């Protein structure tokens, strides 16, 4: 078997693989607690479900235009007006099979082999692999002070003549950190000045806590839309709990969107017709479910932080949004892969090793599950790692006794 150099350089998505591990254990009846998940557990909005069902009933589920239907583009235009305070045209919008495909076609449209893309560490698992798929070079940048908030100087020090783009995700997967408005403002200005693309992955922007509100990068852009190198990514997967519908989008200059659409037309022809129809209904419909999800996640975040308060060896930075917390377990174990394996084998708790996000010694803990998942999951972790935790615990219908430490 001969495999391409690019193909063999791409690793499996650790987050998706762990979902499968958790599902397989559950199917065997194991009382697994999935704290590794990256999708809300709530139902998609009723409007979206009704629209999808209605389309299915017609039996007419066809190809759509490569960059998405006009109805979806119009819904995205309204969304952009509401949340970004900016007016765009249908030709400034592409809808894709998930935000993932929007990012991918954007990278394919702007990158030549050996070009470099800078993004802060820790980063979402797919960023390095997506850049590598273009034959380009991922340039992860560690913050000098080890915090989850990159500084402009951290990014500036990685810029070379080959730098083509900077990509940020705020609120962030895996840390839950929402970057400061001043940072976003400054980054938009610096990228404009240097002629760099700036990809803003805003997929979690409405899932923020403690009274925060989404930030619009357009507030700080000087460049007119048509010469702008800003690429704004968003979608229905997280905010509307519609991960399986696979609809995301990008907003950018018309020239770039045309190239992205050409690429997408050859890749997947168009986003799923049912997904698009459902996404229009979600965006235009009743928005109560988004606020419901946001509140649940804030509540879950609070519960997780309270659990970590009494877990003396864990340092957890309070997330500003998303459904992730990136906790520091180095006191117990520096090798996050080994640690996650130990937690799974001994206590049936799924977590994602920090090394997959470019930062070892940490685990990404998800708050997508129930409050009980959070409290019981952390109790099981304590049982595995903390000598002061009771030696006996119930896992499902078994009582297990710790025989290590
Ligand atoms: N960006 C980030 C940071 C994500 O966490 C995800 C979730 N997988 C995506 C993009 C892609 O979202 P989608 O499921 O819409 O492809
Ligand atoms: N973005 C989610 C996560 O990070 C879903 C899985 C994926 O797309 O990789 O877990």
Give the topology, please.
Blueprint: H1 5-9, H2 14-27, E1 33-34, H3 46-58, H4 70-84, E2 93-97, H5 98-110, E3 116-120, H6 126-133, E4 137-141, H7 152-156, E5 163-169, H8 181-194, E6 197-201, E7 230-235, E8 247-251, H9 254-267, H10 273-284, H11 288-309, E9 315-316, E10 324-328, H12 336-347, E11 349-350, E12 352-353, E13 362-366, H13 371-385, E14 392-395, E15 398-401
Helix pairs in contact: 3-10, 4-10, 5-6, 5-9, 11-13, 12-13
Bound molecules: 4'-deoxy-4'-aminopyridoxal-5'-phosphate and glutamic acid (GLU).
Task: Describe the structure in brief.
It contains 13 helices and 15 strands.
Explain what the structure shows.
The chain has 405 residues and is an alpha/beta fold. The chain folds into 2 domains: 5-43 and 288-401, Aspartate Aminotransferase, domain 1 (Alpha-Beta Complex); 46-284, Aspartate Aminotransferase, domain 2, CATH 3.40.640.10. The chain is 40% helix and 16% strand. It has a 7-stranded mixed beta sheet, with helices on both faces. Strands 9-10-13-12 form a 4-stranded antiparallel beta sheet. Strand 5, helix 8 and strand 6 form a beta-alpha-beta unit. Helix 5 (98-110) crosses helix 6 and helix 11 runs parallel beside helix 13 (371-385). It is globular, with a radius of gyration of 21 Å. The termini are far apart. The model has no long low-confidence stretch (mean pLDDT 96). 4'-deoxy-4'-aminopyridoxal-5'-phosphate binds at residues 38, 98-100, 124, 169, 173, 201, 203, 235, 237, 243, 248.
């Amino acid at each position: 078997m001969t495999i391409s150099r690019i193909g063999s350089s791409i690793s499996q998505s650790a987050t998706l693989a762990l979902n499968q591990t958790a599902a397989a254990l559950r199917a065997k009846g194991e009382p697994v607690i999935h704290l590794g998940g990256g999708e809300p557990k709530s139902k998609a909005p009723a409007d979206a479900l009704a629209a999808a069902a209605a389309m299915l009933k017609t039996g007419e589920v066809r190809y759509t235009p490569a960059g998405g239907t006009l109805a979806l583009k119009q819904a995205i235009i309204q969304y952009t007006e509401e949340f970004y305070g900016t007016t765009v045209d249908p030709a400034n919008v592409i809808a894709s099979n998930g935000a993932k495909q929007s990012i991918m076609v954007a990278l394919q449209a702007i990158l030549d082999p050996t070009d470099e893309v800078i993004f802060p560490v820790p980063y979402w698992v797919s960023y390095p692999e997506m850049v590598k798929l273009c034959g380009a070079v991922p340039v992860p940048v560690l913050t000098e002070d080890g915090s989850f908030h990159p500084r402009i100087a951290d990014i500036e020090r990685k810029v070379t003549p080959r730098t083509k783009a900077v990509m940020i995700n705020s609120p962030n997967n895996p840390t839950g950190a929402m970057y400061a408005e001043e940072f976003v403002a400054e980054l938009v200005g610096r990228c404009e000045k240097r002629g760099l693309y700036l990809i803003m992955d805003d997929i979690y922007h409405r899932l923020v806590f403690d009274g925060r509100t989404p930030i619009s990068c357009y507030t700080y852009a000087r460049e007119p839309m048509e010469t702008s190198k800003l690429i704004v990514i968003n979608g229905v997967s997280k905010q509307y709990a519609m991960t399986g519908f696979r609809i995301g989008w990008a907003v950018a200059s018309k020239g770039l969107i045309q190239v992205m659409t050409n690429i997408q037309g050859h890749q997947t022809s168009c986003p799923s017709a049912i997904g698009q129809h459902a996404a229009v209904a979600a965006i235009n419909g009743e928005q109560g479910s988004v606020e419901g999800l946001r509140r649940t996640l804030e509540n879950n975040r609070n519960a997780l932080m309270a659990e970590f308060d009494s877990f003396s060896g864990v340092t957890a930075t309070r997330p500003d949004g998303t459904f992730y917390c990136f906790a520091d377990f180095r006191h117990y174990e520096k090798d996050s892969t080994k640690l996650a394996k130990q937690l799974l084998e001994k206590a049936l708790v799924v977590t994602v090793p920090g090394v997959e996000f470019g930062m070892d010694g940490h685990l990404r803990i998800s708050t997508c599950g129930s409050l009980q998942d959070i409290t019981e999951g952390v109790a099981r972790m304590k049982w595995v790692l903390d000598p002061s935790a009771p030696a006996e615990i119930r896992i499902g219908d078994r009582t297990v006794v710790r025989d290590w430490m």
